[in-house]
Design brief:
The protein is α/β, with parallel strands linked by helices and 248 residues long. The protein folds into 2 domains: 5-36 and 170-226 and 233-246, Rossmann fold; 40-163, 3-Layer(aba) Sandwich (Rossmann fold), CATH 3.40.50. It has helices spanning 19-27, 44-48, 65-77, 93-98, 117-125, 143-151, 184-193, 209-217, 234-246; strands at 5-8, 30-33, 37-41, 59-62, 87-90, 109-112, 131-137, 154-165, 178-181, 203-207, 224-226. A 6-stranded mixed beta sheet has the order 3-8-7-4-5-6. It has a 5-stranded parallel beta sheet with strand order 2-1-9-10-11, sandwiched between helices. Strand 10 (203-207), helix 8 and strand 11 form a beta-alpha-beta unit. Helix 5 runs parallel beside helix 6.
Length: 248
């Protein structure tokens, strides 16, 4: 079946040169964006209850832009001035770039991974004498604490924001040829909103192995997956799939 409509379970990109817009123009398909999950920050009091003393940490592990936003929000609420000597370990270049919203980039000690946490862990391992704080959501990927424990550094996770399922009731009677997911939480949201969801002819595109498993555990079919060696991004995987099915 040809592809005419796609729903991406994320917010619409704010940049004009997003590859999704390029895909839409090139393949003449309609792409809508709708976050299936959203985050809500916890209060400074809730962070204190987790026994987090900001002054006792010398390094922060940032795995996402949300982690950056909520770390600095809570620090401000606690009237804690983050010292210039603080080290930042960012999971990707995109996360490190976003850090500039809060710190003068060239004056800080910032260490950057390539894409995932496995890429960042060797950098963290080089600084075993640091005390690491990991601000995160309540849905931390299991690989993160496992790898930090294996490295043997002193670290603490603290929940600074929660991942919350979005209300999608207005989509009950809307059909899309492809649904695109990036996390198991997105799949949880799908079934929370639509407990009787049947895949039928809907194609499902997923990013990451944990998302693949979440889809399969629900008895659904994965039609498009990324990243792969040939297709490192979701838009590339979508483009190849649409090219194949729409030319028939």
């Amino acid at each position: 079946m040809k592809v005419k409509t796609i729903l991406v379970s994320q917010p619409e990109p704010k940049v004009e040169n997003s590859p999704y817009f390029d895909l839409q123009d090139r393949q003449k398909v309609k792409i809508d964006f709708r976050p299936f999950i959203h985050v809500e920050g916890v209060t400074a009091k809730q962070v204190r209850l987790q026994k987090v003393d900001f002054s006792s940490y010398t390094a922060i592990i940032m795995t996402s832009r949300n982690a950056i936003d909520h770390f600095f929000r809570v620090a401000e609420e606690m009237r804690f001035k983050v010292p210039d000597s603080m080290k930042y370990f960012c999971q990707s270049e995109a996360v490190a770039f976003y850090l500039q919203k809060y710190v003068v980039y060239r004056k800080r000690k910032i260490y950057v991974g390539k894409r995932n946490f496995q890429d960042l862990s060797p950098l963290i391992k080089k600084y075993k004498d640091e005390k690491f704080l990991l601000p995160s959501s309540d849905k931390l990927k299991p690989i993160v604490p496992i790898m930090l424990d294996e490295i043997g550094v002193k670290w603490k996770q603290a929940v600074f924001y929660n991942t919350v399922i979005s209300d999608l009731s207005d989509l009950a009677d809307v059909y899309y040829d492809i649904l695109v997911f990036f996390s198991p939480s997105g799949i949880d949201s799908l079934f929370h909103n639509f407990p009787n969801f049947k895949q039928n002819d809907t194609r499902i595109a997923v990013f990451g192995n944990t998302t693949v498993k979440a889809v399969e555990n629900k008895g659904l079919r994965v039609d498009i997956s990324a990243p792969t060696t040939e297709m490192p991004s979701m838009t590339m995987a979508l483009n190849k799939y649409i090219q194949n099915v729409n030319k028939k």
